[in-house]
Design goal:
The chain has about 190 residues and is an all-alpha fold. The protein has seven helices and two strands; from the N terminus they run H-E-E-H-H-H-H-H-H. The chain has a two-stranded antiparallel sheet. Its main location: membrane.
Length: about 190
């Protein structure tokens, strides 16, 4: 298996999506009405899906790895302007990890087929991975080290995630549509077939 070589412009695109993730994580700082029940509603899932759909699996995932590493090194790019290695033990770190998988899976589906239906399917697959990895990490974190109340259950973790789910479904489908339009006008990165 040969390693894929990225051009300098490809790495710039990846950096752009890492920056968009930081903006999407903290959108509530300029739009405080996006806080529902004390939970900040972010645009991270949207940008992770869009990264995979526009950049492809490898470059999309690379952009999410860059975002994660920038935050772990201490830059305040995670939600609520947090950052640093201590984030690894936070209940929300699973979502940060899930963005890598979401971008990769979204890109992988689109590399095989580039019609609008494939973009929508890829976006939903990315969203499902985002919720599956993130919610399971959150549940484990609360039960193992974050000292959740005794009554906190797996079902409660999933019910908690029901609040942002409609927004994330709509935005993921929008990301699929937008990526399809972007690639129709300007194929930024040549996707493998």
């Amino acid at each position: 298996m040969s390693a894929k070589k990225f051009r300098a412009i490809d790495l710039c695109y990846a950096g752009m999506f890492a920056a968009l993730m930081a903006i999407g994580a903290n959108i509530t700082s300029i739009a405080p009405f996006l806080v529902v029940g004390g939970v900040p509603i972010t645009l991270q899932t949207f940008f992770a899906v869009l990264a995979g759909a526009v950049l492809g699996s490898m470059l999309g995932a690379l952009s999410m790895v860059a975002y994660m590493l920038i935050g772990l090194l201490g830059a305040p790019v995670f939600a609520q302007f947090s950052g640093g290695f201590q984030t690894v033990v936070s209940p929300s770190f699973g979502f940060i990890l899930s963005f890598i998988a979401a971008a990769y899976a979204t890109g992988k589906v689109i590399e095989k087929r580039q019609n609008l239906t494939a973009y929508f399917i890829a976006a939903i697959i990315g969203l499902v991975l985002n919720y599956f990895i993130g919610t399971n990490w959150m549940y484990a974190a609360y039960k193992i080290w974050a000292q959740a109340p005794q009554a906190f259950s797996y079902k409660m973790a999933w019910l908690w995630m029901a609040v942002p789910l409609p927004k994330d479904i709509i935005l993921s489908l929008f990301a699929g549509w937008l990526a399809h339009r972007i690639r129709a006008v300007s194929p930024v990165i040549a996707l493998k077939r």
